[in-house]
Each structure stands twice: as C-alpha cells, then as structure tokens.
C-alpha cells in the first residue's frame, strides 16, 4: 500500500462520493424517463489504466464496475483539456458500450499539464435510430439494424461540442432533443467529477490521488480474493438454456466450466452456442466483462458486503469466451437485448458456483424480465404506449433461507409501476397483480414465488408486447435436492374464444374486453422438500402461498381433518414422508431434452461448429436440430415423447454428428 | 373537538423523548425566561421520565402544576414501532386481486449484488390481508361495490383474524375518498371497538402501495399511541397538571392530542423535524439566510437544509425500509454518530461505523460494558471533551478505558509511540468527518446547491462537538451554535406552530376544465383545513395557507412541486408557473407539450405566539482569563483555552484553539477559527482573518 490506512479510507470515501455526486447531478439534469425513473445510467472515475478505481455504491447501474475505458481512450489519441470522448459502439470500444442506445462519455482530468484521471458517464438514451423506435428489437439480426454506430471520437473539443458530430448524431435519432438533453446532463456530471478531482488534489495532493488509483483496486482485489480463496479448488461445470432464440423455437444452450484455485477463478464458456441471428448476443470481446461476471461479483459482495466497488474485483478472474459464440459475438452480430442472455448467464454462473459453494449460492432465480407494454390507439392516429408492469419472478432458495417472493434484483433492480398510475394513463383495468401461489420450487427451503398479472383491455385495437418471455419450457432449477419453480405461462383470454397459451410473444392485437394473464416462473428450491419443517409449510399454507394439495404432494405434509385451524397431522406426515418421493431438479422438459441432446453430444457439436466458418455455424446447427427433431412430437420437449421416438432421435443425432464432425477427423 | 383552551399567559413546555434522554424546555412568558432540563429516558415506560422530568423542571422554575398552560410533546413511539415492526396487530382489507400490495411493494430490493439481503418485513403479513370486491376506476367511479352480504363476509373474515385495528385500501380510492371513508364506516359498524383507517380518507394521493402504508402505519401505531397518552394523562393528572397536550408532527408543526390520536401517522418523524424548525427560526432571527442543520445523535448524524426561513420538505422519505409519502421536514442521514464503532478491518484499514454501540452499552468510556471504542471515545482521548464535565458531570467518563481501547486500534493500524492512541483517535475523527462531508455534498449535489453558500447550525448533544471539524473539512464559512443546542428538539416543540398538510390527486390535463377542477379541489382542501384549525383549541393566532400542485409534461415520469400562491387559477398562468419551475430546475421548458396536474396540495399553518429568545447582555468586561487543556489535533498537542459558556457575553470573541464548555455539550474551536458571541447567546464560528 502506498497510502496509510486512514488516508486510504478517507480517499476511498471521498472518491466514491465524488462518483455519486456525478450520478446525482446527471439524474437531476437528465431529461428522459430512463434517467429519471429507471436510473439506467452510471458515472465513475477511471485511472490512467482506464479502469474504475472509484464507483458509486448507491446510484446508477452497479454491474458496470468492470468496464474498461482504455481502448476507447486509445482509439481517440492524445487528449487536450476540455476534450470529451463519445462512443456507443460495442465492437470499436472493445466492450465499453454493450448496445447502441448506451452512450458513453469520457473526459480527461488534467493537473499541471498531465492527465491524472478520467471521468466517465454512460446513460441509456431514448433512440439512436435503426429499424424500430427506441432502437431495440430482439428480432434484429445485424447491428446495422440497431442504429447509428459511433466509434470513439471527440464529442467535445476545447470545451465546445463539435458541431458536425452533433449534426450527424441528431440526424440519426428519432429523439434528437431528448438525446442532446441527456448528453448535456452527462457533460454536467463529468464537470462535477473533474471539479471533485481538483478539490481532492488541492486537499491531499496529486500523488495521493495517483496512489489511491492503485491502492483502492489493490484493496478490493485482496478482499475479493479472500472470498474466492475460501471456495474449494477444482473445476465446476454447468449448463443452462434459453427457451428460444426469439426467431425460432430452438433453445439456446449456454455452458460454462469454472476453475477455482488459490483465490483466482477461470470462467470458460467453451461449449456455448454460436452467436445468434437475433439481438441477444453479448459483446464481451472475450474480455473479463461485467455481463459475463456479474454473479461472481455478487458472490464477493454477498460474502463481504462492505467490499469497495472498483476494478480490483475483476482481477481474480480469467476469461475464456470463444469467438463467434453468444458470449463473444463477432460483428455484425446484433446485441440490442444482450441483457436477455445475461439473465441466463447469471443463472449459469450461479449454478456452477453452487457446485463449489453450495452453502452460499442459491437455486435458480426465476430468470425472466418481461416488460408488459400496452399501446392503445389515442384516437388521433397515434398510440399511447405504457409499460403495465416490468414482470420478474422471485429469487432462488439457499441453505437456511427461502427465496424472495415476487422480486428479483439480480440483473436490474427496477421499481414497478403503481397500478393506479397505469390505470390513469390507459383504459385497461388491472384485475390482479399478486404473488403466484404454488409456483415456488419446493425444497427444505423453498424458492421465491413468481407473480401473476391479469388485465382487461379497455380500448379496441390495443397492442400488447411481452418480450422476454422465458422459463416457460426450461424451468428455474432446484438444487441440493430441491425442485424447480413452476414454468412461466402467458395466456390470452379472448371474449368468446378458447384460452390460448403462448410460449413466445412478440406483439398481439386485442379487442376491448379481452384479457391477458401472465404468470412468471417461480424460483428453484434448495434441499429435499420432505425435510422442510412442517411448521414452515403450515406457515406458507396460512399465508396462502401453498395449497393443501401441494403441501401433501410436494412436502409430504398431511393436514388434520375436522379441525378449524390449519394443523399438520404429524403421524400421517411422518408416514407419508417415510414413503419418500424424489424431487428432480430440472423439470421434465429439460430432462426430456437432455435425454436426446446429451452433454457429450453437445460438446462434440460445439467443437465441430467452432471449426466451421462463422457464417456456416447457425445453418449447420439448424439443419442438425431439424433432422433430429423430425423424429419427435411437435410439442417436444414440453410434452413427453415415446421411447421409440427418443431412440430414433438419438440415432439421428449420432448420424448428423458423424456427418459434420467425423470421429478422429 | 379539543378539550381545553390554551391559556396564553401560562408556561409552555416542550418535551422531546429520545432514546437516552428526555429533554424539556420551559417558556415562562410572565418572566420572559427559558429553562432547559435533561432527564434520563425510561424506555420501558417513557411517560415516567416525562412525569419525573416535569416535576424536576417545575421545581427548578419555582412553578406549581397549575402554572403550566400547554405541553408540546414530541414522541418516537410510532417511529420505533414501525422500525421494529412492533406495532399493534392489524388486518388490511384491500381490493380483490391486490392481496400482495405490501408483499410486492415497489418491487425493489435493498441491494442488487448481495443476494443474501432480505426484503423489508411487510407491516401486515399476507395471512392478515383480506380481499373485498370493491374498487373504482381512475375517475373515481365505483366499478365494483360490495352489497351487504359481501360486507358481512369481509367483516367476519377480519374479525376472525382478531386484530386490534384495521386498515382499508381500495384501488383508485384516491379519486373517491368520501366513498372509501363511507365503506370504512360501514365496516366499522360491523366491527365494534375496532378502529378502521381508510387510506384514501387519510391521504388521497395516487399510488396504491404508498397509500396502503399510510393506512397501515396509522392503524398499527394508533393503539400504542392511545395507550401512551392515556397513561401520560393519568400521570399528569396525578401531578395536578391539567394543561392541554399537543403533539409535534413530522411536518415541523403540531397537532392537538385529539387530532394526533386520529392521525398518529403524522407524528412519526416529529423529533428531528422539531429541531430543524427551531434551527430555521433561529437562523431567521440571527439573520443567516441559508443553513445546513447538523444533529449528531448516538447512532447517526442528520442534516437538513433551510433557506430564507423555510426548511426543505420531502414527500418521499423512508422509515424502517418503507416509503412514507406524507410531507415531512426533509432530513438526511450522513453517517457516524457519537456511538459509531471504530475498528480496523482484516486489510488494516480504519473503519468508523456503521455499527453503533448506541446508548447501551455505549462508548467504552461510559463504563457500562462497552468494549469497542466509539467516536465519543475518540473525542475523549483527543481531549475535545472533558471526562469530568461530560453532561455537567452527571456521567463520569473512564478516560483510561477509552485510551486503552484506542491504543488497540492504533496497534491494528501499525501506529507506535507515546501518542499512538491519540493519533488513532484523530484518524478516526478524520474518517468520520470525511464520511459525513461526502454524504452532505451528495445531499447538496442532488439539489444543485453549493455548500459554500451555507452556514452550519449544529444541535443535539454531540452536534456542537463535531461542528467545527465538519465545517473545516466541508469548506463552510460559518457555524452558528445555539445556546440551547443540546435540547434543541424540545425547544422546537415549545415554539412549534400548528400545521397540517393536505393532498388530493387529480391526474388531469391542464385545460380549462382541469384548472377549474384544481381550483375546486384546493377550495375544498382549504375548507377542510380551516375547519380543522378552528377545532384545535384557539392556540393559533393567525392562519397562513400554502397552495401547490404537482405538475408534469404529459408522458414525463416525474412531477414537480409548483407553488401556486399568487398564481391565477387559469390554465395559462398555471402552466407558466410550471414552465418556470421546470426551467429553473432542469434548464429548459417545453411549450409544445401538454401540461398535466397530478396532485393538489395545501398546507395550513396556525401561528402560535412566538417564543422569544432571551437576550444575552453585552459584554462589559473582557473575557476572563481561562484555564487551558491539552488537545490532540492531528499534528500534535496544542494548548486550548477552556471557557465556560455561561461566562460569555454578547460581543466576546474567542480565538481558537479553544473549548467552550456547558452543562450539556462542548464546542471546540479549531486553530484558525474564532467564535463571536451574539446577542441571542449564539456562538458564531468563523475563519479568523489570516
């Protein structure tokens, strides 16, 4: 350490507070909903190495602490006082930006003619052009459809915005004024950052600031390594799936191997599916990137809640993310909804870490974020568009604690919308917004319940969007003997028609009186449900979160009959539990799927695809799946398949693999 | 409505019940004097300390019980009940389909990274939430309404839960508070003896979760407050004190006991609010335009901002992890308190807080079993406070124990040598101060305010002790230390006006019709407010109304509070008032956008006869020569002059380093600063000219 332990604490506090002041300034001056309400922005201070040595604890997006500013800085060349860099380009900023609506700005902080730090800010702006309003659509297949790409360049030179840059930027957005308002808010935040750096130098000297840039990450790294060193050494492998790649019903397979040793961790995504022709790819450029390491950081912050947030947290991590996969796509892969894949990457890392640290990690969270949006005709040719609720589920159980019902902050800790403000804006009526009973994955500790939202359309011709429907097929897994959460369900209840349940939803047009019901998945359980304390089951019964049927079926708890209050029949319960009952962690769909598409086969496929030219991978993969699935029922794996069909499918898969990946060839 | 009419010529007593001490300030108009008293609190029955303190105070004043004309009482019973979830057993009745309004909340978690963090405990468990087929649409029209049988069913379901009180919240009830209150009445008639709190009747503002909490908090603390005030009145009656009791409120005003019993939720944050109001009034009297108040307690320190005689109000604060939307004096926690624990972490870094030793066991120096050193121990070891004179000598401090504890900290930091403990203590004060200043700057940054424009006004027992350290680090130019800083919340209570806030959401476009509706709503609120004040016992001499509305551009996610006093009730004038506020805050106006009115707001303030501060006579003699003591300030030991505050007169100037001692607090003056005594007995700290 270069600083004494008092000065380190003081500078750590001051620098963190400086970043929070930047964020508060941005939020105050910012103009759009993303900034004011959902706080999809952040500010921080980077050292000469381009990494953040000070990062806010209490305002803005916490996940981006591991970003690297240096490639963007290097791309622009020598900076002068009063310059500000702008970029939104994931590929040319080498993963600083991760989709085009995120505008990143960087300003050098000078002291006596030399750069001593960089102030950084980003925010999610309303629109940067592209195929659809707001620039984001899951069905985009190339980044060119997603809007204007801004390679790292000087937005501000000598304190003034470069007019040509503004002109070009404005011309490529549907919301130029709002965007410029947001940019001005970021510039104000950078100014606060520069002023705070100057104040700290005046109080403590430039050398102390430069020393803090090294000491603070060193300090965080030591604390992170202390957490990781407590885990057992070894390799831990895990697989999870996205239900579909949005443009088809084919699942997306994500695989990871974690290698833990001596307080370090290697994350290897070899075996993960090739990049998609949809917008779910995560542009990590193969680096130790926040989107691929969030659960590791969460583990550190969970075991050591006071750990400083800065780049030091990432230092124990080594990354292997093969090029051309979902987790390291090559241009021009579309990336607009990369968070949809990040949700599952988070589950994947959670599962693998759980093998190493079963007493700390949780079963799967519900693993879905579905902003339910309604667009009502406004009577003047336009539409009144509102988010009804951003629907998530609950969190997974862990040893010693049930999961959280109806809330899941693991990817974005967003606030929901008051039903009353929704009904004041739209003609619809929300009939139900509640926890979903019997949805929690059973376990000695149960998962968190999912949510249920029911609303009745009030305006003829309303459009409903529910993007991000997931976990309708592959359920949030349980662990250590716990069962999976209930699958998600999206149902359209039309007047005078049969109810229609959909696994994937993009956009629906509905009539007044039609109703929508969305049930989000429950989270996974932990430990064998028959070991759950009957008193805890009774508690859930009284709370109305578990039905008497589920209590007996899932938990082996038999109720006494003929008594006014809920009471367990302990003898009958013991007898029922003695008969046993195995709980499978995955749910039937995943079991059925993996009975055909085994780990060994998938490893072979993955290696074979990786050897092909990028453009060939998805077509070959699709053809293989089509050939195999032809032997199985149409609703496989949602419904079981006869043994003969499974056998035929397995044989077809073997043939296909021999064709594209000859053994020994 | 009110039981007694206030006698103006008689004594008024302000009472503030804290965790460690119950503070009293007596204003005796006949003798134009102020008396202060501190009584150890009795947490198992707070009314005992109140009664005992009153007896001691009256004796000191030489007054009999009949001389007391008014008691202004601040209490934290409600606050503690909410924070500790120890309120009464209540049931919640909600619109069918919304049983989980409290479970879901605003759906955020305390941390996005720490996956062992738990969500807040709901005020009412799901098992005690009952549903009823009743709701309105956004215009307030009932779209489902219970018949007698449905009401009977709901009442029976509630009764089966054996609650002490019931809260009611119907979706869109804010748009039809009268109808919801009617339903609450129909329910109450089926549930004899059970109070029913209607969310919309209490606070008809849009947002069902936050409104539910208002009703649940009200219902949950009501039985406790009723019991407390019944017991207090019994004790007072036993002492012969028959004066009416008023209760201070979170908005800095006060309410008659009758109002407080019906709406106890309004008193939740009264303690800090009273102190800020007193500071605001004092600053106005002293001619200081902008202040940051600084209240340092045992577990944390709070600041508030006041400009031009008005404190800042907030309509979204947090209590025990739950949002509260009632207007309250805006107070922000900024970190360490006197009881915050000092420690060295596994990496050898010095930490202050967030754990607190509180009042029990308290700092090591208290000798009550505390083994972990605190900020107060650091004051003692550096010599900033005198172990023999702490709290006027009523609590002898163990210097040796504090010193030994700080020496352990020093070892953890690798400090050696004769002054290692002192250097560790000074380091801890620097860490604590830097932490407070960073939080203060963030509070100012979120409002776009410049700290250099503000004077610091410390109160509470430790506020004056830390004020100069804070001002020095923050670069503030001046500090104003009031004479009665240590009992300032009680002073705020005795000088409190009557005040109530009202709100009613409309959610309308600001056209001719919307403007008319806004005017009608404000007129109705005014009528309600004036009716309330008239029933409060004639304490108020005069009434002031403040009107405002929350407005926004259509589609905007946030609303701005627009003061409407002096604004014509026409669309153009109202819109202009909004544009102007928007431009001032955000730097632009959008003339093309539709303006919408969210919530109409009105406050009524009934002015109570002011409590004049006694004047401090001007100095006729130079300051008497002072004793000195050694104080460890960073670089080493310095000799500081020690003055007794009671010996100071207006016009005296004391150069730092110096220590001003008084019975209930200590004010250090750092080198490079000086203190000027003003005619109200305040110490004005300022940087000495170089």
Describe the SSE topology.
The complex is a heterodimer of chains A (665) and B (690).
Chain A: H1 5-29, H2 33-36, E1 41-46, E2 52-54, H3 70-76, E3 84-87, E4 102-111, E5 114-124, E6 153-157, E7 160-161, H4 163-171, H5 176-204, H6 206-229, E8 234-242, E9 252-261, E10 264-268, H7 290-303, E11 317-320, H8 338-356, E12 370-377, E13 383-391, H9 419-425, E14 429-435, E15 451-456, E16 462-466, E17 489-493, E18 500-502, E19 507-510, E20 515-519, H10 534-543, H11 548-555, H12 570-578, H13 588-596, H14 599-610, H15 614-629, H16 643-660
Parallel strand pairs in A: 10-11
Antiparallel strand pairs in A: 1-2, 1-5, 3-4, 3-6, 4-5, 6-7, 8-9, 9-10, 12-13, 12-16, 14-15, 15-20, 16-19, 17-18, 17-20
Helix pairs in contact in A: 1-5, 4-5, 5-6, 6-7, 7-8, 14-16, 15-16
Chain B: E1 11-17, E2 21-28, E3 33-40, H1 46-61, E4 68-74, H2 77-83, E5 90-95, H3 101-104, E6 129-132, E7 135-136, E8 142-144, H4 148-160, E9 165-169, H5 177-190, E10 196-198, H6 199-202, H7 208-239, E11 245-248, E12 254-256, H8 257-262, H9 270-286, E13 290-296, E14 301-307, E15 310-311, E16 313-314, E17 317-319, E18 322-324, E19 328-329, E20 332-335, E21 340-344, E22 350-356, H10 375-382, H11 399-413, H12 420-445, E23 455-459, H13 463-474, E24 478-481, H14 488-494, E25 498-509, H15 512-534, E26 542-553, E27 560-563, H16 571-586, E28 595-607, E29 627-633, E30 636-644, E31 653-655, E32 658-662, E33 665-669, E34 673-677, E35 683-687
Parallel strand pairs in B: 1-4, 4-11, 5-6, 5-9, 9-10, 13-23, 23-24, 30-32
Antiparallel strand pairs in B: 1-2, 2-3, 7-8, 11-12, 13-14, 14-15, 14-20, 16-19, 17-18, 21-22, 24-35, 25-28, 26-27, 26-28, 29-30, 31-34, 32-33, 34-35
Helix pairs in contact in B: 1-7, 2-7, 9-14, 10-11, 10-12, 11-12, 12-13
């Amino acid at each position: 350490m270069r600083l004494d332990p008092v000065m380190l604490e003081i500078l750590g506090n001051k620098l963190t507070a400086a970043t929070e002041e930047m964020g508060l300034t941005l939020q105050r001056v910012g103009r759009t909903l993303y900034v004011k309400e959902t706080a999809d922005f952040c500010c921080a201070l980077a050292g000469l190495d381009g990494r953040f040595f000070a990062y806010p604890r209490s305002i803005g997006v916490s996940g981006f602490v591991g970003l690297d500013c240096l490639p963007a800085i290097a791309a622009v060349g020598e900076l002068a006082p009063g310059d500000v860099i702008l970029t939104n380009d994931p590929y040319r900023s080498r993963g600083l930006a991760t989709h085009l609506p995120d505008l990143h700005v960087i300003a050098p902080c000078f002291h006596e003619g030399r750069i001593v730090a960089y102030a950084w800010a980003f925010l999610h702006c309303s629109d940067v052009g592209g195929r659809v309003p707001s620039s984001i659509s899951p069905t985009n297949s190339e980044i060119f459809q997603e809007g204007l790409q801004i390679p790292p360049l000087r937005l501000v030179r000598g304190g003034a915005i470069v007019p040509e840059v503004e002109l070009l930027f404005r011309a490529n957005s549907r919301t130029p004024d709002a965007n410029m308002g947001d940019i001005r808010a970021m510039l104000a935040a950078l100014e606060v950052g520069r002023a705070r750096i100057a104040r700290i130098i005046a109080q403590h000297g430039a050398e102390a600031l430069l020393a803090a840039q090294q000491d603070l990450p060193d300090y965080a790294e030591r604390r992170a390594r202390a957490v990781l060193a407590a885990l057992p050494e070894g390799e831990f492998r895990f697989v999870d799936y996205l239900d579909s790649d949005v443009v088809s019903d084919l699942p997306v397979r994500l695989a990871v191997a974690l290698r833990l040793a001596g307080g370090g961790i290697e994350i290897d995504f070899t075996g993960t599916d090739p990049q998609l022709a949809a917008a779910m790819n995560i542009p990590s450029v193969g680096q130790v990137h926040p989107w691929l390491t969030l659960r590791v950081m969460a583990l550190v912050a969970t075991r050591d809640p006071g750990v400083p947030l800065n780049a030091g947290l990432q230092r124990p991590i080594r990354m292997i993310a093969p090029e051309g996969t979902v987790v390291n796509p090559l241009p021009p892969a579309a990336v607009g909804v990369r968070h949809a894949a990040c949700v599952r990457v988070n589950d994947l890392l959670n599962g693998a870490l759980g093998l190493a640290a079963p007493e700390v990690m949780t079963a799967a969270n519900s693993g879905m974020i579905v902003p339910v949006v309604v667009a009502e005709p406004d009577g003047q040719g336009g539409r009144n568009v509102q988010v009804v609720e951003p629907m998530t589920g609950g969190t997974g159980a862990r040893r010693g604690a049930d999961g959280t019902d109806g809330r899941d902050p693991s990817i974005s800790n967003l606030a929901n919308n008051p039903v009353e403000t929704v009904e004041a804006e739209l003609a619809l009526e929300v009939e139900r917004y509640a926890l979903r009973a019997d949805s929690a994955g059973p376990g000695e500790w149960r998962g968190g319940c999912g949510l249920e939202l029911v609303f009745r359309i009030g305006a003829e011709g309303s459009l409903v969007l529910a993007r991000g429907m997931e976990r309708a097929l592959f359920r949030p897994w349980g662990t250590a003997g716990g069962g999976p959460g209930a699958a998600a369900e999206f149902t359209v209840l039309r007047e005078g028609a049969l109810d229609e349940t959909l696994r994937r939803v993009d956009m629906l047009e509905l009539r007044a009186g039609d109703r929508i019901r969305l049930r989000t998945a429950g989270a996974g359980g932990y430990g064998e449900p028959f070991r759950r304390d009957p008193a805890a089951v009774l508690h859930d019964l009284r709370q109305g979160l578990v039905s008497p049927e589920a209590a007996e079926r899932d938990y082996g708890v038999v109720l006494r009959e003929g008594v006014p209050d809920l009471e367990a029949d302990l003898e009958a319960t013991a007898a029922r539990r003695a008969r046993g009952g195995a709980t499978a962690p995955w749910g039937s769909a995943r079991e059925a799927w993996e009975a055909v598409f085994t780990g060994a086969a998938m490893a072979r496929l993955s290696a074979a695809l990786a050897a092909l030219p990028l453009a060939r991978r998805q077509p070959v993969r699709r053809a293989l799946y089509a050939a195999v699935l032809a032997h199985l029922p149409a609703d496989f794996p949602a419904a079981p398949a006869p043994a003969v069909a499974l056998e035929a499918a397995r044989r077809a898969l073997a043939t296909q693999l021999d064709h594209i990946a000859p053994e020994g060839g | 409505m009110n039981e007694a009419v206030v006698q103006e010529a008689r004594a008024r007593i302000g009472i503030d019940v804290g965790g460690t001490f119950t503070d009293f300030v007596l204003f005796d108009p006949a003798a134009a004097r102020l008396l202060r008293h501190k009584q150890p609190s009795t947490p198992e029955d707070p009314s005992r300390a109140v009664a005992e303190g009153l007896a001691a105070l009256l004796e000191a004043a030489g007054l009999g019980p009949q001389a007391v004309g008014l008691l202004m009482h601040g209490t934290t019973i409600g606050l503690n009940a909410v924070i500790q979830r120890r309120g009464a057993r209540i049931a919640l009745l909600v619109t069918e389909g919304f049983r989980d309004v409290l479970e879901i909340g605003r759906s955020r978690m305390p941390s996005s990274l720490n996956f062992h963090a738990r969500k807040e405990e709901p005020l009412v468990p799901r098992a005690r939430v009952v549903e009823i087929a009743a709701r309105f649409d956004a215009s307030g029209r009932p779209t489902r309404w219970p018949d007698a049988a449905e009401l009977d069913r709901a009442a029976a379901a509630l009764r089966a839960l054996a609650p002490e009180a019931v809260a009611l919240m119907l979706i869109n009830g804010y748009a039809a508070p009268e109808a919801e209150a009617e339903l609450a009445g129909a329910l109450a008639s089926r549930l004899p003896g059970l109070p029913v709190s209607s969310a919309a009747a209490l606070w008809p503002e849009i947002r069902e979760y936050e409104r539910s909490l208002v009703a649940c908090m009200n219902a949950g603390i009501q039985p406790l407050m009723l019991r407390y005030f019944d017991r207090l009145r019994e004790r007072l009656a036993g002492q012969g004190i028959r004066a009416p009791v008023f209760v201070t409120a979170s908005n800095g005003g006060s309410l008659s006991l009758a109002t407080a019993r019906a709406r106890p939720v309004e008193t939740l944050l009264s303690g800090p609010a009273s102190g800020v109001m007193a500071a605001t009034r004092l600053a106005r009297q002293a001619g200081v335009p902008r202040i940051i108040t600084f209240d340092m307690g045992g577990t944390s320190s709070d600041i508030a901002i006041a400009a031009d005689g008005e404190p800042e109000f907030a309509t979204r604060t947090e209590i025990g992890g739950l949002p509260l939307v009632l207007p309250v004096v805006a107070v922000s926690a900024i970190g360490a308190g006197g009881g915050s624990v000092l420690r060295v972490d596994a990496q050898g870094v010095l930490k202050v807080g967030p754990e607190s030793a509180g009042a029990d066991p308290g700092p090591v120096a208290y000798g009550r079993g505390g083994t972990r050193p605190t900020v107060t121990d650091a004051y003692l070891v550096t010599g900033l406070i005198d172990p023999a004179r702490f709290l006027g000598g009523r609590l002898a401090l163990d210097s040796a124990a504090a010193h030994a504890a700080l020496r352990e900290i020093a070892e953890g930091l690798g400090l050696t040598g004769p002054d290692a403990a002192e250097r560790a203590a000074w380091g801890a004060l620097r860490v604590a101060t830097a932490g407070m200043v960073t939080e203060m700057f963030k509070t100012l940054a979120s409002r776009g305010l410049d700290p250099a424009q503000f004077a610091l006004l410390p109160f509470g027992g430790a506020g004056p002790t830390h004020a100069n350290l804070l001002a020095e680090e923050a670069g503030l130019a001046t500090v104003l230390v009031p004479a009665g800083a240590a009992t300032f919340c009680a002073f705020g209570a005795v000088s409190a006006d009557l005040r109530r806030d009202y709100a009613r959401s409309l959610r309308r476009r600001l056209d001719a019709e919307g403007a008319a509706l806004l005017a009608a709503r404000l007129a109705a609120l005014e009528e309600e407010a004036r009716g309330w004040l008239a029933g409060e016992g004639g304490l108020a001499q005069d009434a002031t109304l403040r009107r405002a509305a929350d407005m926004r551009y259509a589609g905007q996610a946030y609303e701005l509070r627009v003061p409407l006093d002096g604004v014509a009730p026409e669309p153009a004038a109202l819109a202009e008032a909004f544009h102007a506020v928007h431009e001032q805050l955000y730097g632009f106006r959008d003339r093309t956008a539709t303006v919408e009115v969210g919530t109409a707001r009105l406050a009524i303030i009934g002015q109570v006869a002011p409590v004049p501060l006694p004047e401090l006579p001007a100095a006729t003699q130079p300051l008497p020569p002072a004793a000195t003591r050694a104080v460890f300030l960073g670089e080493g030991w310095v000799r500081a002059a020690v003055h007794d505050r009671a010996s100071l007169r207006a016009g005296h100037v004391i150069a730092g380093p110096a220590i001003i001692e008084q019975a209930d607090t200590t004010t250090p003056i750092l080198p490079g600063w000086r203190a000027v005594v003003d005619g109200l007995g305040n110490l004005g700290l300022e940087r000495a000219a170089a």
